[in-house]
């Protein structure tokens, strides 16, 4: 009879150990799944510049896998600061193709973009003037994902000064 009780005690302890190990693995895998879910909807900003003969533009693209929620866009040119790029651009004798005013609080969907400025320059003088002013600018972007994780991006536009 004592051997039978000893077997039941060993089986009970074994079952308890297996249950504890199962709980530990469940907690670990739940954590890893939560981390995966968070990363699967992560936005990635790309401050893109285009400098072609017939088009000059600056945009913010979302190349990530989740919506990009813009908290604050700050644009600096020497001692000046603005929340939009167009206000720091020189006066030119033509209309801008497109531009955005303040974009704080806006959302960029996956694969989407917001054009800060775009210009199809009419002549070389306008092209030179706009490129020179853009080369002095730095863009700072603060944004979050849907879990309110904060991200920052920075892009100097000195690439436009290569023609000087």
How are the secondary structure elements laid out?
Layout: H1 2-39, E1 45-51, E2 56-62, E3 68-77, E4 80-82, E5 98-99, E6 107-108, E7 113-119, H2 124-134, E8 137-144, E9 150-156
Antiparallel strand pairs: 1-2, 2-7, 3-4, 3-6, 3-8, 5-7, 8-9
Describe this structure in words.
The chain is built from 2 helices and 9 strands; from the N terminus they run αβββββββαββ. Strand 1 (about 45-50) and strand 2 (about 55-60) form a beta hairpin. The relative contact order is 0.18. The strands form 2 sheets. Strands 3, 4, 6, 8 and 9 form a 5-stranded antiparallel beta sheet that branches. The model has no long low-confidence stretch (mean pLDDT about 90). It is an alpha+beta fold. Helices cover about 30% and strands about 30% of the residues.
Quick structural summary:
It is built from two helices and nine strands.
Class from secondary-structure proportions: alpha+beta
Shape: rod-shaped
Low-confidence stretches: none
Mean pLDDT, to the nearest integer, reads 92
Structure annotation, total helices: 2
Strand segment tally: 9
Q: What portion of the residues fall into strands of 2 or more residues?
A: 25-35%
Main sheet, how many strands, which sense, barrel? 5 strands, antiparallel
Q: What is the CA-based Rg, rounded?
A: 28 Å
- Can you write the helix and strand succession as a string? HEEEEEEEHEE
């Amino acid at each position: 009879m004592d051997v039978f009780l000893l077997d039941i005690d060993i089986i009970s302890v074994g079952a308890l150990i297996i249950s504890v190990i199962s709980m530990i693995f469940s907690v670990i895998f739940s954590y890893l799944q939560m981390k995966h879910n968070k990363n699967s909807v992560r936005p990635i900003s790309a401050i893109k510049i285009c400098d072609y003969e017939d088009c000059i533009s600056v945009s913010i693209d979302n190349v990530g896998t989740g919506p990009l929620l813009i908290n604050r866009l700050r644009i600096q040119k020497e001692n000046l600061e603005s929340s939009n790029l167009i206000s720091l651009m020189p006066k030119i004798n033509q209309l801008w193709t497109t531009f955005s005013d303040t974009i704080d609080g806006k959302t960029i969907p996956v694969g989407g973009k917001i054009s800060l400025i775009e210009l199809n320059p009419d002549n070389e003088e306008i092209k030179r003037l706009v490129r020179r002013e853009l080369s002095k600018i730095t863009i700072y972007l603060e944004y979050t994902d849907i879990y309110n994780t904060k991200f920052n991006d920075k892009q100097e536009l000195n690439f436009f000064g290569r023609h000087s």
